[in-house]
Write a structure and sequence with these properties.
With about 450 residues, the chain is of the alpha+beta class. About 25% of the residues lie in helices and about 20% in strands. The strands form six sheets. Strands 4, 9, 10, 11, 12, 13, 14 and 18 form an eight-stranded mixed sheet that branches. Strands 2-17-16 form a three-stranded mixed sheet. α2 packs across α7 (about 425-440). The longest helix is centred in the N-terminal third of the chain and has 21 residues, at about 85-105. About 40% of the residues are buried.
Length: about 450
């Protein structure tokens, strides 16, 4: 597996992400957290046919795919895996913490936490039934390979350079390069789906000259803010199993998704925050807990929404590595707004910690913001047709404007960055595209 270096143009913020080149791509390092996008959010930004599909079974089909049928949205944790009393206990205490937080900011509504969908199979009921454990497209690709599927050919160590359309016949073609011998080859197809990621797909499109016909190609590169804190403490003995819970909240005036992981493996916050622990007296210490003592882990993350920023872009210049121009949202320069957001997030984390057993004087550490691209949620460089957008790169069926048979299906098509991990939504959209192309044939 190789994570490619991404260069930044002068004036850009530091970028911590990068495309992953291997069988399965970024899906090999997806986190397990797989929430849905709030309905009114995707209905506002996505075309109606996609929003309708998501709400009319698309999300359920995607969750079934990711979990091999071991979960549903009503039974996320199978009863034989997690003690129901623990989920009830955790939900009740977190709801009480959120109630106190809303009272502190003058809000009268009472949001409720719910169990979070996980891109993971709990238990296989069949021998050789893929996937096992965390979801990745690798499982399905290998499964079809082992079955000698005549319709699947996998070219490893191969890079797509450009896509072309014959002026006379309209036939589509790809120029590819083998890293084994550095030779280039030309292949043709009736249907091509670009899915090289928000940066990679845009780079292919720019190298192919698509921006001459569709000026928005490569523009709008955007990542939402993710804030997190991770600390160790000794929880109430009623909590033994790993749990993940979520809740939609208003924090600092922003519509956000709160994610609380209790003794559950979570990439979010683990990679970009320091280590902290509370002793039994509720005193905060920086660093890992003492060796030899058993501590529980609480992981709190808050994800925000972001609209596309057209000045952020994949830069169209010849280079062996991608070059981007990217800065955080302009509103982040509002110091007073930032302080309000920070204070409220810290207060919320403190209330959650106390609800789970911290002493009355304990105060959670301030949350840390993840670097741009740190968790591979960048979107927008090949934006799809929205409900009200007059300018876009791919239409409501994910076909590139003016290129019959050329589709895009990765996070580059998202016309906004949602306040949620986008992997479940992307999986659902991919299933919808697959259904449509199958029907066309």
């Amino acid at each position: 597996m190789v994570k490619q270096t991404v260069a930044t143009a002068p004036g850009s913020d530091v970028y911590a992400g990068g495309p992953v080149y291997c069988l399965g791509g970024r899906s090999t390092v997806w986190g397990l957290y797989a929430p849905r996008i709030f309905k009114e959010k995707h209905e506002k930004h996505f075309p109606p046919n996609i929003s309708d599909y998501l709400e009319q079974g698309g999300y359920e089909k995607a969750l079934e795919l990711l979990t091999n049928g071991s979960q549903t949205f009503t039974t996320i944790y199978p009863s034989n895996e997690i003690n129901a009393n623990e989920t009830t206990y955790a939900e009740g205490h977190l709801n009480e913490a959120i109630k106190k937080f809303y009272q502190s900011i003058g809000k009268h509504s009472k949001p409720k936490v719910e169990l979070s969908a996980l891109a993971s199979q709990f238990r296989s009921e069949k021998v050789y039934n893929f996937p096992q454990g965390a979801y990745s497209t690798v499982d399905y690709l290998l499964d079809r390979t082992y079955q000698r599927d005549p319709n699947l050919t996998i070219l490893l160590n191969t890079e797509v350079l450009t896509v072309s359309k014959a002026a006379d016949t309209g036939k589509l073609g790809l120029k590819i390069r083998s890293s084994s011998n550095d030779k280039t080859y030309q292949v043709s197809a009736k249907t091509i789906i670009l899915s090289a990621g928000t940066i990679g797909t845009a780079r292919i499109a720019l190298s192919s000259g698509l921006q001459r016909h569709i000026p928005l190609v490569g523009k709008g590169l955007t990542d939402h803010d993710i804030w997190g804190v991770r600390f160790h403490m000794k929880l109430d003995k009623k909590l033994n199993d790993p749990l993940k819970l979520q809740c939609r909240l208003l924090v600092g005036g922003e519509d956000v998704l709160l994610n609380v992981a209790i003794n559950a493996n979570s990439f979010l916050a683990r990679e970009f925050t320091g280590s902290h622990y509370f002793d039994e007296g509720g005193n905060l210490h920086h660093g890992p807990p003492p060796a030899g003592e058993e501590y529980d882990t609480v992981n709190i993350t808050i994800e925000t929404q972001a609209l596309l920023v057209d000045s952020n872009e994949v830069v169209d210049i010849p280079s062996r590595e991608p070059v981007i121009r990217m800065k955080r949202r302009a509103r982040d320069s509002n110091t007073a707004k930032q302080e309000k957001m920070q204070d409220q997030m810290q207060d919320l984390a403190t209330l959650i910690g106390k609800a789970l057993g911290l002493g009355p004087v304990a105060k959670a550490p301030r949350l840390t913001r993840a670097g741009l691209g740190a968790v591979a949620h960048e979107v927008g460089t090949m934006r799809m047709e929205g409900r009200h957008d007059k300018d876009f790169v791919v239409d409501k069926n994910l076909q590139v404007r003016g290129y019959d048979g050329l589709y895009v299906c990765d996070l580059s098509i998202f016309p906004f960055s949602p306040p949620a991990n986008p992997s479940l939504t992307l999986a659902a959209i991919a299933l919808q595209l697959a259904d449509r192309l199958t029907e066309m044939k």
